[in-house]
Amino acid sequence: MSNSPYIIEITEDNYQAFVIEQSRQVPVLVDFWASWCQPCQMLMPVLARLAEDYQGKFILAKINTEEQQTLASQFGIRSIPTVKLFKNGEPVDEFAGALPEAEIRKFLDRHIPRESDALVDQALQLLQQGEGKSALELLEQAKTADPANDNINLALARIQAALGDPVSAEKILLQLPADMRDKPEVQALAGRLFFESLLMDAPSQTELMQRLEADGHDAEAMYLLAAHHVKDQNYEQAVDLLLQLMKKDRSWGDGAARTALLKLFDVLGDDPVVPRYRSKMMSLIY
């Protein structure tokens, strides 16, 4: 039994209080282990050291799978060590095996609030108030103080985009860790930046519509007009134009219409219209 206030042995009796309820206040890292498991024995002192280093920013909850078989079964634990992170009463992330300390720190830092995150929140509030330049200055201060916080870079990308610099915003996104780039909100931002970049030197909607009236096969006009519709959130019109372009010339621009549709799906995320749009696109491919 550990004497640390940051490390708790979990049983069926205290699980609800010290994992579910506690995780509503602070992240709880649950380590499923067993005495016979050599990797578990390697991992345990690393987790204990991190619990002390983080000084209560997370709680380490240890579940002995031999003694607490019901809890292990409840979470479908088939191999150990398995480590799950709980927030707000739910498991939100996990890893398996005895990872190196540096990787576990990265894992934790994705979920544990940092002091610089408060500056990020302030900057995004300034952006909503139309004070983009002040928001940018605040984030630069935060980045100097905490250069390892990727949330700062993501906020910088949002602000650069809002200030009309999609190229700089895209460069920032490309520098984010791969697991962060895969998050839906980051993919949605990358999708919006894709269309904004297309429009940097593009003709106006009026000019593009006139071009299409003169030549209904003007692929570039269809493509750029679709980008305008995405920017104006007229998504159905954008999809229709890109599908028309695929139907007329699927290979135009090395498959530019299909690429744009996929970017648009990223923008829309889990919108229920996406499966319908995707089905229409696939019908033109196969």
TrEMBL record:
Residues in Thioredoxin domain copies: 1-113
Any one Gene Ontology molecular-function term assigned to this protein's record: protein-disulfide reductase activity
KW Electron transport (keyword) present: yes
Pfam family, one: TPR_20
SMART domains noted in UniProt: TPR
Family from the record: Belongs to the thioredoxin family.
Protein name: Thioredoxin
